[in-house]
Please model this.
Amino acid sequence: RQGLTLQIQIIPFGDDQKMVLSRDISQIEKLETMRRDFVANVSHELRTPLTVVGGFLETLVDGLDDFEREDVIRFLNLALDQSNRMRRLIEDLLTLSALETGAPAPSEERIEIGALLKGVYDDTELLSGGRHQVTLDVQGGGYLLGSAKELHSAFSNLASNAVRYTPEGGRIELVWTHDAQGAVFSVRDTGIGIDAADIPRLTERFYRVDRGRSRESGGTGLGLAIVKHILTRHQAMLRVKSALGQGSVFSAHLPKARFIPLPAQASRS
Ligand code: ADP
Model:
């Protein structure tokens, strides 16, 4: 079998007798490689902003009197950006680690969909700062069962990616629909799009199509890994459709058991 790594152990017993044990350790090796990559990634992600902050502070310590006040403020603001970046990364790492190390099942709140989506829409508008045309279309309201905090975070994350990967002037549509299978929250953007080859890897920790672009836009590379965990905990699925240069659709498919349509909608369908 391809990828099989056998660990052989020879155990002597009795007079001149030996027992041979073998086990497949390819999974263990794979996990170990993933763990090492993860540690290397985290270290690298923290080292870069720390180097920048250290560099600015050193420059100021060495020659504070040589700089104009505006230059000092500019340096300090750049250092502040980097420290915010480190804080975001650590917050995302803590969220991910809580989700991965068996956080208790999500709470089963009755979440009003209109209010949940209005919150996501407000976050999106704020992040866009008027640079995009953001719309919200709720086709049939009702309630969701799950953790309001987690679902808000997952939906806002998808919407914030749309903002970050859509050039100014683009459109971002937040759409809620439901049918016999369940409910769907989609984020459609007219942004840079994603090559088909990259799509299967998007939810891997630190996987980015374009590292520079992600960093520049304030990304940590952990957003979609967090989204996937939250959705899985709610028995929901993430689907991605995208075309390079045209835009993307990220949708969260929630099972029927988690959706309570309003009585009027229920009797109509
Ligand atoms: P990041 O913090 O880098 O955005 P994510 O896990 O949220 O990390 O996303 C992983 C990668 O997926 C991003 O770096 C980007 O390359 C790609 N991506 C995510 N959402 C979109 C989108 N709406 N349009 C284009 N690319 C996207």
Summary: Residues 161-162, 165, 189, 191-192, 194, 202, 207-210, 214, 219-225, 248 surround adenosine-5'-diphosphate (CB under 6 Å). Helices lie at 26-63, 69-100, 113-128, 148-164, 211-216, 223-233, 263-268.
